[in-house]
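Action item from last meeting closed. Structure (406 res):
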């Protein structure tokens, strides 16, 4: 066996070990919170998940890349398919919006709570990670409503020349308003994943968007907060970020082309001055947004679109309790994007930011050597946080009642 072969073999092993990050060890989540009273209320329900180590799957779970890729390819190890009702809403612009409604499987709550879920880019109620969370939450007594981003589900026709975007919250607001009409006394907890986290956060922070008093809190998972900074990071080749940007671009592009008979017919192309060749040839999301999204929604540039879309510019207006979750090794959300949310949580009331060292993008697989548990750490902590937000709301109401009685 030659020395050169041994050297190459050693380099390969070093690269694999570095990629898998096997030398890392489990760590407790870091908590950032100015409001100790709010934090204590959440901890009364979530102490186990927030005070114990998050233990990723031993062989590959310490790699954010592997967690992210597995989440994208398989979603979850075990995924029940819950039966629900699909609700159709006709939007003012002619779009057909849908969301899926699931009733609780276990009536363990004295109060009526509806969880309004906004999935990530190109995802819907049919996405595996959404289905797993929905079923787990149903088993804990929650009614679940999941927004289906326009254009994502093949069986639902696109009826206007648009699909979902990064910052338009009208669709999510329409689902919330529909839920309030159906269940006037329900308490609503908003939950957003990735892009959905940005939409939920922006919706809560928009001053001119009326929001029902039914909303008692929100949770945002693995979002990037600032689209301009995120795009600058993802355009670099460092840490394979350009690869992930390519995948995201192709995902959105495939949705557009799937509905090209509506989105790119001759009338629409003339009205919005669209060039189909430029759309098809777009190599990055900024290219695609410049060729399509900015023209459809009348933005002068991608920078203007991203600035308007980014929830970082709306955080200070949020009045509802809100919890953010991110992992440091998320390859789609570089650590530079996490600094503003740490500062926000440490300077504003009723805000908690939870940061894990591992978990990737929406992965958070846990335990096992190779095969992880069917439920992820994220599934477990989310259901606990729902209980924490409900408890914090009830505790606040009781204290106000006591003060008024005195």
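Sequence:
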């Amino acid at each position: 066996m030659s020395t050169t072969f041994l050297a190459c073999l050693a380099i390969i092993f070093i690269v694999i070990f570095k990629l898998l990050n096997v030398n890392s060890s489990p760590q407790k989540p870091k908590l950032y919170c100015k409001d100790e009273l709010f934090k204590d209320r959440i901890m009364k329900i979530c102490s186990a998940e927030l005070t114990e180590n998050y233990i990723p799957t031993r062989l590959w779970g310490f790699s954010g890349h592997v967690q992210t890729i597995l989440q994208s390819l398989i979603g979850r190890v075990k995924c029940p398919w819950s039966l629900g009702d699909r609700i159709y809403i006709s939007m003012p612009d002619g779009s057909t919006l849908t969301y899926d409604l699931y009733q609780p499987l276990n009536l363990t709550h004295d109060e009526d709570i509806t969880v309004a879920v906004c999935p990530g880019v190109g995802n819907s109620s049919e996405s595996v990670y959404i289905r797993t969370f929905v079923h787990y939450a149903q088993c804990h007594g929650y009614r679940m409503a999941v927004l289906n981003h326009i254009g994502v589900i093949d069986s639902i026709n696109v009826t206007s020349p648009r699909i979902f975007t990064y910052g338009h919250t009208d669709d999510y607001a329409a689902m919330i308003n529909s839920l309030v009409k159906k269940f006037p006394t329900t308490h609503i907890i908003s939950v957003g994943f990735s892009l959905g986290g940005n939409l939920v956060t922006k919706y809560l922070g928009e001053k001119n968007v009326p929001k029902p008093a039914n909303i008692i809190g929100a949770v945002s998972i693995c979002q990037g907060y600032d689209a301009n900074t995120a795009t600058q990071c993802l355009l670099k080749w460092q840490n394979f970020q350009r690869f992930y940007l390519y995948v995201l671009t192709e995902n959105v592009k495939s949705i557009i082309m799937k509905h090209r008979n509506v989105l790119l017919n001759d009338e629409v192309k003339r009205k919005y001055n669209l060039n189909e060749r430029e759309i098809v040839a777009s190599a990055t999301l900024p290219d695609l947004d410049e060729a399509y999204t900015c023209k459809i929604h009348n933005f002068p540039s991608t920078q203007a679109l991203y600035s308007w879309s980014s929830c970082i510019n709306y955080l200070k207006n949020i009045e509802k309790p809100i919890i953010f979750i991110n992992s440091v090794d998320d390859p789609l959300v570089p650590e530079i994007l996490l600094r503003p949310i740490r500062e926000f949580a440490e300077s504003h009331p009723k805000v908690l930011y939870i940061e894990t060292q591992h978990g990737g993008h929406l992965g958070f697989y846990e335990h096992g050597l190779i095969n992880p548990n069917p439920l992820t750490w994220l599934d477990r902590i989310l259901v606990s946080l729902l209980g924490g937000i409900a408890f914090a709301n009830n505790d606040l109401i009781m204290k106000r009642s006591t003060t008024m009685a005195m």
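Note appended to the action item: The radius of gyration is 22 Å.
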